[in-house]
């Protein structure tokens, strides 16, 4: 597994500009990612390129600049806010004589720290090992000439071959364990059925305030903090809405730009509950200048997990940072499309509860309409069946008469 970053590590961040307009937002996000991982940012090295350097991603001059910052600040970690190949990572570590990680490794590290449930830990370990497997091809070739170790290697097996084999065995075991848990959940869902309660799932960009909103609505006490990926494990509670009765509300992991595919795959079983929801509360940080891009990033991940067609209600959170008043917005057909509120201050929460009540009552009416329709069909089928029996009886009576 990729080792978790130790607290108090001093990190140099490398951010290159390839022509994107959201550079400031990218820098702010990687700083928060670094802080969430437990490291301190001691320097930021920026630069512009048309394309990544094949050997070091940043190029010779920029690598020398990073080396100088390492020496000045006595840094022990370099974080590239980009995706590095195994070869680039190895070349950088050789030239900088310092540990180098990329954006994927940084996010995986945070997930490793946040995972609480047994399943969450298995999912994170699987994602880490899947990522590590891409590093064994080139990154560990210096081990190839080492001789076999006692009790581990097969005849004539190199260290690299042993590492690959053992990693493969562990990955297979993790997948089998997660598959068993997924089957168990499938049986439980089948036993419960979809039910008559409105099933609502909170989704959103990480640090948009999902868990804070969840706690404000349910008083569940889910951990919430001003850091990325504060919540990994799904939490589900019933929420009472007066006349509308109960609904089921779930809080799960937040999304982020360029979320590692290994994480999406590993957490797919957990995230599938989102795809089965009746409604998604898409929580948006209304104070973020990158909110439109964040909405697009969330919708991209939702499409990956099969939740693109689930109806959404946008919740513009953090109004306390914008000065805007709470409000409910409707589309041209009168349907609720957006609620503005502050989960921290509570302003606008009654509006959200009213919106959820309206949607829950609509589902109840739809279910009643379906039951009425089914009852009508059943009665017609019974009537048709009775008529058929009567016709058969008349035919038999006619055939049997002298």
Automatic annotation (TrEMBL):
CDD domains with a match to the protein in the record: HflX (cd01878)
Keyword Cytoplasm: yes
GO MF term list: GTP binding; GTPase activity; metal ion binding; ribosome binding
Domain Hflx-type G: 198-364
Coiled-coil residue windows: 164-191
Cofactor(s) it depends on: Mg(2+)
Binding site for GTP: 204-211, 229-233, 251-254, 317-320
Entry keyword set: Coiled coil, Cytoplasm, GTP-binding, Magnesium, Metal-binding, Nucleotide-binding
Residues binding Mg(2+): 211, 231
GO annotations of cellular component type: cytoplasm
Annotated localization: Cytoplasm
Predominant subcellular localization, coarse grouping: cytoplasm
InterPro entries found in the cross-reference section: G_HFLX_dom (IPR030394), GTP-bd (IPR006073), GTP-bd_M (IPR032305), GTPase_HflX (IPR016496), GTPase_HflX_N (IPR025121), GTPase_HflX_N_sf (IPR042108), P-loop_NTPase (IPR027417)
Protein function: GTPase that associates with the 50S ribosomal subunit and may have a role during protein synthesis or ribosome biogenesis.
UniProt subunit comment: Monomer. Associates with the 50S ribosomal subunit.
Similarity comment text for this entry: Belongs to the TRAFAC class OBG-HflX-like GTPase superfamily. HflX GTPase family.
Name of the protein in question: GTPase HflX
Gene symbol of the encoding locus: hflX
């Amino acid at each position: 597994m990729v080792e978790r970053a130790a607290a108090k590590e001093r990190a140099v961040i490398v951010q290159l500009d390839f022509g994107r307009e959201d550079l400031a937002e990218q820098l702010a996000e990687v700083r928060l990612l670094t802080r969430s991982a437990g490291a301190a940012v001691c320097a930021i090295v920026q630069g512009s390129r048309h394309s990544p350097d094949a050997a070091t991603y940043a190029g010779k001059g920029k690598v020398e600049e990073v080396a100088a910052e390492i020496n000045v600040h006595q840094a022990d970690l370099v974080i590239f806010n980009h995706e590095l190949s195994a070869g680039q990572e190895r070349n950088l570590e050789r030239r900088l004589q310092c540990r180098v990680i990329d954006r994927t490794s940084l996010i995986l590290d945070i997930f490793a720290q946040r995972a609480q449930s047994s399943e969450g830990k298995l999912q994170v370990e699987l994602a880490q090992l899947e990522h590590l497997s891409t590093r064994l091809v080139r990154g560990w070739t210096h081990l190839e000439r080492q001789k076999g170790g006692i009790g581990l290697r097969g005849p004539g097996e190199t260290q690299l071959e042993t590492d690959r084999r053992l990693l493969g065995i562990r990955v297979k075991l993790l997948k089998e364990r997660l598959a068993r848990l997924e089957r168990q959940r499938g049986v439980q869902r089948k036993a419960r059925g979809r039910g008559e309660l409105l099933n609502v799932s909170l989704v959103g960009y990480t640090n948009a305030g999902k868990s804070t909103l969840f706690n404000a609505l349910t008083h569940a006490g889910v951990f919430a903090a001003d850091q990325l990926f504060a919540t990994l494990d799904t939490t589900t509670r019933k929420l009472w809405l007066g006349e509308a009765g109960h609904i089921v509300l779930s809080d799960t992991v937040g999304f982020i730009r360029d979320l590692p595919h290994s994480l999406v795959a590993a957490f797919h079983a957990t995230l599938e509950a989102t795809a089965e929801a009746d409604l998604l509360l898409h929580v948006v940080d209304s104070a973020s200048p990158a909110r439109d891009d964040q909405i697009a990033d969330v919708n991209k991940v939702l499409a990956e997990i099969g939740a693109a067609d689930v109806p959404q209600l946008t919740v513009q959170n953090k109004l306390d940072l914008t000065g805007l008043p709470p409000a409910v917005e409707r589309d041209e057909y009168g349907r609720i499309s957006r609620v503005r509120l502050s989960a921290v201050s509570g302003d606008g929460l009654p509006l959200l509860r009213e919106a959820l009540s309206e949607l829950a009552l609509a589902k109840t009416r739809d279910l009643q309409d379906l039951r009425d329709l089914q009852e009508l069909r059943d009665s017609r089928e019974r009537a048709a069946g009775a008529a058929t029996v009567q016709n058969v009886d008349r035919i038999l009576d006619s055939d049997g008469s002298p």
